[in-house]
C-alpha cells in the first residue's frame, strides 16, 4: 500500500455534525488539523490537483450521558470534515480552509472509506484520518 499524503489523529475532540454554527465547527476542526501539520504548504503541494482518497474514523465516546453524543449520523459528521479541505470553508470565500483542494474542488475526492467507532474513554474520542492519492495501490 502507498504511503499517505497526510495522516492525523485528533484525540480529546468531540466530532461535530452539520447544523447550527457549522462555520464555527469547521473553523475549530480546521485549526485542530493545522496544529498537527508542521508545514501546511508542503501538504498542500502534495495534495492539490490530485485525485484523492480518504480513510476516516470518527471515534465517539460510548459512555456519554449527553443526548446524541454517541449516536451521531456518519454522513453529518463527514460533511463538516470534508468542508475544511478546500481553500475556503464558507460560500463567500472569506474564511480560509486547509487549501488541500483548490476552490472547493470536491470533485477531486474520488473515494471515502469511513466508519464510526464507539470508544470507552473521552481521551480516545476524536477523528483519525489519512489522505492518499487515488487510486491507492
Structural notes for this entry:
This protein is of the alpha+beta class and 137 residues long. The protein has a single domain, classed as 60s Ribosomal Protein L30, Chain: A (2-Layer Sandwich). It is 23% helix and 26% strand. It contains three helices and four strands. A four-stranded mixed beta sheet has the order 1-4-2-3. The chain is globular, with a radius of gyration of 15 Å. The model has no long low-confidence stretch (mean pLDDT 92).
Multimer state: single chain
Strand content: 25-35%
Please report the number of helical segments. Answer: 3
CATH topology: 60s Ribosomal Protein L30, Chain: A
Q: Quick one: biggest sheet? A: 4 strands, mixed
Average of per-residue pLDDT values: 92
* Count of discrete domains: 1
Short structural summary:
With about 140 residues, the chain is of the alpha+beta class. The protein has helices at about 20-35, 40-45, 75-80; strands spanning about 5-10, 50-60, 110-120, 125-135. The protein has a four-stranded mixed sheet with strand order 1-4-2-3.
How are the elements arranged and paired?
Blueprint: E1 6-11, H1 22-36, H2 40-47, E2 52-61, H3 74-82, E3 109-119, E4 126-133
Parallel strand pairs: 2-3
Antiparallel strand pairs: 1-4, 2-4
Top keywords for this entry?
137 residues; alpha+beta; 60s Ribosomal Protein L30, Chain: A; 4-stranded mixed beta sheet
